[in-house]
Fold this sequence. Notes:
mainly alpha
Amino acid sequence: MQRSLSYQNPLTPYFYGVLFLIYTALSGIYLFLPPLLAILYFYFSKALKKEDSGVLFLVIFCLLLFEASNGYVLFSTIIYFFLLHKYIVPKIMQNFSCATCIRFVVVLLAYFGFFLFYSLLASIFMFPAPNISYYVIYYIAIEFLIMSISP
């Protein structure tokens, strides 16, 4: 009986998940390490397109770690990323043909859009309003550079 060799590296995503757990702990201590929110969106979007439930659950776990370490409401990033993937990014892809421009806009939306989404949630449910700092511009630049060198 032959085995299916369609998915040869089943432990690789979980290894990256453990690395992200360590990285999240370090980024909470050192502010020069970006939280990798835009990169998590790209993996979230890729997992939804490929219908890969293992990677999707791993990315959701990483997003929950991000929310817990930054004090956000549970599932707020997941809801925002789903809305971004379903409604906003297809419109951006219709209007732009440049792949680099699309990546830059998506990185901007991952940070500033989430800030606006969480501000809306805060005003509806009477949470404290989120603060935004100048580090966000640094995070956007770093994550855009990471996304521009990745295939």
